[in-house]
Design brief:
The protein has 9 helices and 21 strands. The chain has 369 residues and is an alpha+beta fold.
Length: 369
């Protein structure tokens, strides 16, 4: 596949770490929330193996925050998500599908409750800030909504715990998953959550102080040498094997939370008010007509930049492959697909036309690993 350069501009922002990662050998960018997001440091497969054994630092500053504060902030955050946040607690992160009035997914962010009247919505790739402002204006909520100057770096991989303990002490390894607290470095406090877009374990540092944040970035690489630390980025192979969904790739506004397997984050029987609630009740009553599933194809390479039709043995279109990669673990191509009813059953035979050739495979459960 031919490669093209990305022209940087004011509306296509770099990050505080861009100068660092370009010296460290970034080889590809993608665009995420109008920002540069590193997509590769050489071989994706080599990076995959390293991530599963050691520790990497990722520039994920493109994971922007929408800060919602004020006396009606909890009402607005709840209005946007089908997950019941009435019992949420300070210092916790919550995976929250955000939906519109037709129950279509707007985003699938992690929501951080800093306190009852201050929330961060940590975004996947879509303009949620405009959605939030529109709802606030229409409902006359007393809130302040803006994008704070927060630039996340992620520390991911099995050695991340030893590295972070070395820098921040015992307290940080006692953080529960999706918990966060403040930790001091360079004279500033940084919000650090036990989270990240991999299943290898790790942390995300929400950097609000750029000077000390860059010093921390450099310091982590210096003290992390004994753990074979390297720069990295969200890894296509690892995230598909782990069943981590990508908004805009695997799911979008044409899908509802039930179709995407988000049942445990849908609280239609609670007393809370949220957009699309009645629509979700109707969808549950009638049943879904498509469902996100895994697929395995009996080939050893693939490169797709759009959706790919999946057929049955009679050439009927029964699904849509949305993301795929070669898996070193399974020694074949695996992918995430939206399958039509009733063709989402495990072991359903499928076939697809890839590079002019017909290949075959089967439907399977998510996650793969």
């Amino acid at each position: 596949m031919k490669s093209f350069s990305i022209a940087k501009s004011r509306r296509l922002r770099g990050t505080p770490y861009t100068s660092r990662i370009e010296k460290q050998g970034v080889t590809a960018y993608t665009i995420y929330n109008h920002m540069l997001l590193p997509a590769a440091f050489g071989s994706i497969e080599d990076s995959y193996h390293h991530l599963k054994q050691y520790v990497q630092i990722w520039d994920v500053a493109a994971e922007r925050q929408v800060e919602i504060s004020g006396k009606d902030s909890a009402k607005l955050v709840q209005l946007m998500t089908c997950r019941d946040l009435s019992k949420s607690k300070d210092g916790r992160c919550y995976y929250c599908p955000i939906i519109d009035d037709n129950a279509g997914l707007i985003n699938d962010p992690v929501v951080l409750r800093l306190n009852e009247n201050k929330w961060w919505v940590s975004l996947a790739d879509s303009d949620v800030i405009l959605f939030a402002k529109g709802l606030a204006i229409g409902n006359k909520f007393d809130v302040k909504i803006f994008e704070p100057d927060v630039d996340i770096m992620a520390i991911q991989g099995p050695k991340s715990f030893e590295l972070m303990e070395k820098v921040f002490g015992d307290k940080i390894v006692n953080l529960k998953f999706f918990g966060f607290d403040y930790f001091e470095f360079g004279g500033d406090k940084h919000l650090i959550a036990r989270s990240g877009w991999s299943k290898q374990g790790g942390y995300e540092i929400y950097v609000e102080h750029n000077v000390s944040g860059l010093k921390l970035y450099d310091h982590l690489f210096e003290v992390g040498k004994e753990f074979n630390i390297k720069p990295g980025c969200p890894n296509l192979i690892e995230r598909i094997e782990s069943g981590l969904l990508s908004y805009g790739n695997d799911i979008d506004n044409g899908d509802n939370p039930y179709e995407c397997g988000f049942d445990k984050y849908i609280n239609i029987d609670s007393e809370v008010n949220f957009l699309g609630k009645e629509k979700l009740k109707k969808i549950k009553s009638e049943g879904i007509k498509k469902k996100l599933m895994g697929v395995m194809l009996d080939i050893d390479k693939i490169s797709i930049t759009g959706s790919l039709e999946l057929s049955d043995q009679n050439n009927n279109i029964i699904g849509e492959l949305r993301s795929a990669c070669y898996s070193p673990h399974f020694k074949k191509v695996i992918g995430i697909a939206m399958m039509k009813k009733p063709h989402w059953n495990v072991d359903q035979d499928i076939k697809a036309k890839i590079n002019g050739e017909i290949c075959v495979g089967k439907v399977c459960d998510l996650p793969f690993i």
